[in-house]
Amino acid sequence: MLKYLVTLFLGILSLSGYTQSTQIVVHDPVAIGADGKYYMYSTGVGVASWQSDDLVHWKFLAQVFTQIPAWCKQEVPNFDGNIWAPDISFHNGKYYLYYSISSFASNRSVIGVATNVTLDPKNENYAWVDQGPVISSVPGRDNWNAIDPNLIFDENKIPYLAFGSFWGGLKLVQLNSDLLSVAEPQVWTTLASRERDFHLPDIDPGNGAIEAPFIINANGYYYLFVSFDLCCRGARSTYNVRVGRSKELKGPFLDKENVPLTQGGGTVLVNGDENYYGIGHNSVYEFSGQFFMFSHGYDIHDKGKPKLVVHKLNWDTDRWPVVVEQPNP
To answer: Which residues are catalytic?
Structure first.
């Protein structure tokens, strides 16, 4: 895993200063519109940031962290410097970037958050301020993994953080209004899970792999997007994106066949195809009235490297998301 992530980061550095489209090497992309531009953040040393005018051509900007916060190594001794699975949003006049500190096949993990008043590195006020840990998971104490965060607000504007990977599934917990800490009393809701054989090692949980929740509110529903099966294995990657929906943020989320996502349900939205071994770890946004889904796919034509994949989404007559096309050439 370390060798893979170092290769990923070197690939990112090699793109610095160049405009790219489908050949961008990224993992776990998230995006946001700001000041007439689009910004994207992805897994890497210090978290990689990108900028685009059109959602197709992206230019590498910088690392969010030029120095990794000191607490990361203290909280997660096996942490190797690669920060995973960011989440970006704008609230209260600030940008909030949640991120994951962990090590492969372990649930000794922490979700942290950093804030900024602008995303433009050329702005004189540009400065990411680390706010420290938000949620931690500890082996033997927690049957969940504190990685893959996603911030979502309910109909009363109360903030929640969805998160999770493998173990007992994907969780939801309420945050305080400052978006920096968990609200008391702490209540942990299971959003989705899959039955798995715990005799198998965490690095390969058989058919029990589920991670990367992402929730949007649209068409009178909350839609929960999740990634099934295995990432990070190049040509052996089997990632795919599935979806369920609920009238309530805390669920229950059901798929098209009314199977609860807490019982292994999930309607397939996108899968591997003639170009990618697997596609997953998605995020969904509405930009100028059009919904877009950001993911990464393991490129069949380039030795299984993880590449940016952006799909357009529409809605069928029953208000389920459907993939329309990829805007990338």
So the answer is: 28, 211
